[in-house]
Amino acid sequence: MKNTFLIGAATSAHQVEGNNINSDCWAMEHMKYTSYTEPSGDAVDHYNRYEEDICLLAQSGLNAYRFSIEWARIEPQEGQFNESEVDHYLKVIKCCKENGVEPIVTLHHFSSPKWLICKGGWEAETTPADFERYVRFVVEHIGKELNYICTINEANIGLQIAAISERYKRQMTALAEKMRSEQTSDGQVQVGINLQKMMENQKLAAKENRRIFGTPQPQNFAGSRTLNGDNLIMEAHKRAKAAIKEIAPNIKVGLTLSLHDIQAVSGGEALAEKEWDDEFMHYLPAIRDDDFLGIQNYTRSQIGPNGILPVPDGAEVTQMDYEFYPQALEAVIRRVAKEFKGELIVTENGIATSNDERRTAFIDAATDGVARCITDNIPVKGYLYWSLFDNFEWQKGYSKTFGLIAVDRNTMERKPKDSFYMLAKI
User: Fold this and answer.
1) Alpha carbons 179 and 17: distance in angstroms, whole number
2) Which residue in 29, 102, 132, 154 is the catalytic one?
3) Which of 152, 198, 352, 391 has a Cα at 20 to 30 A from 37?
């Protein structure tokens, strides 16, 4: 598999497994003043149906599956590890390999153990050491079975959320009751969050947060990040990478970043450069020597003299309010490759839509761009569509359909879409 182009799909544990009861996300979903539209519940029951799902993926002709290991399952209480849970993930990995599928494991994909958040979460100086301890336990048990590990998913998402949260506050102040409900800043960050609901619930939630997490402002991973918190995430990545290389030096290690095709409109050149620095360039010192970088892209951002511009009038938008713009992926790969000299894997790229023909068109255009990059000797080693399933899109719930496979959540029946088979033919 090492010399084969990796083509497949991605998931994250909390979004597909179900009943992740020891995580911060599970706690937040069940709060009275929650920003989640609904709880995850059984999700798509991938925890119990992984064999069926991996076999389905393999039978279509896809050869790679990126999935995450849930820290809250492995270490439900601080310092107390659950060996049966790490054995579960070992079975998932072996199932992949038995079916000719390359397993690409992510060790942290947004959700965290509740106890970690009670300690200060992703702004606590103790978190890099806590993460390293968890990583060591996992890799000691499963490392010999793996070729690729992503330490942290979208390590830069916290700064993106902080920036759009600040923009959103300014919108609310300026527009007050006249704020347009049809288009908000939600579509400018590549994760399912409900900014409006978050702002409305802020005061009411503070008291409940204090009761559940011991603080009115819990520092969850997919929340607004300070610069110090951003540095702590890079420290957690570096410590995790060192531990992995010590235990299993042959594993290729990297992280993933949420990246937009940032385009300057006349007068916005300086702000566009700053946006790219915030999103990518300032992470280079921490990741420059990584074996690979996971690129995660869904759309573009146009920057004018006053900042990010709304989606152009008349442009097609997805269920997530992203502009339909599959050309963004090629542009991002080319820009990243100028600075990062390791391997590149597209670890997420996709579209939330109820129209599978538009999903097929998106994949076709995006992968054409990947092919052009490869022709130009850019070391792109894989393309992993997001997501394998219609699944739990965080605070947005189950209404956003990214999947190659639909799931009847009453029966859990899997229903592959035409786009699923189209991707396999590529």
Assistant:
1) 37
2) 154
3) 152
**What is the chain's length?**
426
Residue 389 gets which letter from DSSP?
A: B
Give pLDDT, residue 77.
98
* Pairing, β 343-348 against β 252-254: unpaired
Cα end-to-end distance, the chain, whole Å: 17
DSSP 240: H
Strands 413-416, 405-408: pairing is antiparallel
Distance (Å, whole) CA 46 – CA 160:
30
Q: Each residue of 61-74: pLDDT tens digit?
A: 999 999 999 999 99
Residue from 224, 218, 166 nearest 191 by CA: 224
The dihedral sign for the CA sequence 90, 67, 243, 250: positive
**Domains in the chain: ranges and CATH:** 6-260+278-299+323-425 (3.20.20.80)
> Residues 6 or more apart from 327 whose CB is under 8 A from it?
261, 300, 365, 366, 369
Q: What is the pTM of this model?
A: 0.93
The model's pLDDT over 330-359, given as tens digits with 9 standing for 90+, comes to 999 999 999 999 999 999 999 999 999 999
Q: What is the mean pLDDT of residues 235-250?
A: 98
Examine the pLDDT at 2 and tell me if it is beyond 60. Answer: no
> Of 324, 357, 386, which Cα lies nearest the Cα of 187?
324
Task: Please tell me the distance from the alpha carbon of residue 192 to that of residue 320, in angstroms, as a whole number.
Answer: 8
Quote the strand ranges of 297-379, DSSP E.
300-304, 307-308, 343-348
Task: Give the C-alpha distances (Å, rounded to integers) separating 64 from 13, 141, 154, 218, 414.
Answer: 16, 21, 20, 35, 19
pLDDT for the residue numbered 1 = 45
Residue whose C-alpha is closest to residue 242's, from 158, 119, 129:
129
pLDDT value at residue 68: 98
Q: Does pLDDT of 140 surpass 80?
A: yes
What b-and-e string marks burial along 384-404, b requiring 16 or more CB atoms within 10 Å of the CB? bbbbbbbbbbbbbbbebbbbb
pLDDT in tens, 360-384: 999 999 999 999 999 999 999 999 9
As given in the structure block, the two tokens for residue 247 are: 């235990």
Exposure of 285 by Cβ count < 10 A (0-12 exposed, 13-18 middle, 19+ buried)? exposed
Q: Which two tokens stand for residue 298?
A: 């869904």
Of 2-6, 38-42, 76-80, 237-241, minimum mean pLDDT range: 2-6
* Residue 154 falls in the annotated catalytic set: yes
